[in-house]
Amino acid sequence: MTPEHTFVIHRLYDRFNQDQKQVFFVTGPDPKVGVTYCCLNIAAAAVELMANYSILLIDMNVYHPSLSESAKNPEKGWVPWLTENKAFPLKEAIFPWAESDHLNFLPTGHIKNYRHVAAQMPHWSDMFDILKKDFNLIIVDLPAFYQGTEARILSRAADDIMIVIEADATRRPIVSQMVDELRSMNTSILGVLFNKRKFHIPRWIHRRFF
Length: 210
What we know:
InterPro entries: Bact_polysacc_biosynth/exp, Cellulose_synthase_operon_BcsQ, P-loop_NTPase. It holds the Pfam family CBP_BcsQ. By secondary structure, the chain is α/β, with parallel strands linked by helices. 37% of the residues lie in helices and 17% in strands. The chain has eight helices and seven strands. It starts with a helix and ends with a helix.
């Protein structure tokens, strides 16, 4: 967990108190910016700073479900729940995250042939309504915004979105285009997080004077 990820939760916490924001998506323009890494650190900061809230982390990256793979990719998850017409209670697919007693996790589950279909199923928005009944803050690891249609479709359900970009790599026009598209959907953007930032002077000097 870094100061940047802690700052994200401070900003989210301020808006959470005012507007009861609950569903928080994290995505970037392309797959290499480190969205999953940022999601884990933001979740860790949330557990530390929002100890009185119930927090859920969701892996919705159907292209690279690394969070689900680290949890040994259980059969049950949000994809089977959606595509099998709610054949089982959604709570059966949720379990504690291994490294935290205060963080719960909802994996993709067995994806099979649903990779490009799952996010477009008619019940995907119902899922968040159900989860909001049990969790105060839901942090979602989305696919890259320009990797497919999933991130665009799902972004409409977000109360807030954090955009992750790679410092010195992500091009400004791509970020501007992404911001414009999100705003056209009336999506609230919490901010932009610079990942993989290189410090050419010692960190302690940068933090003290900049």
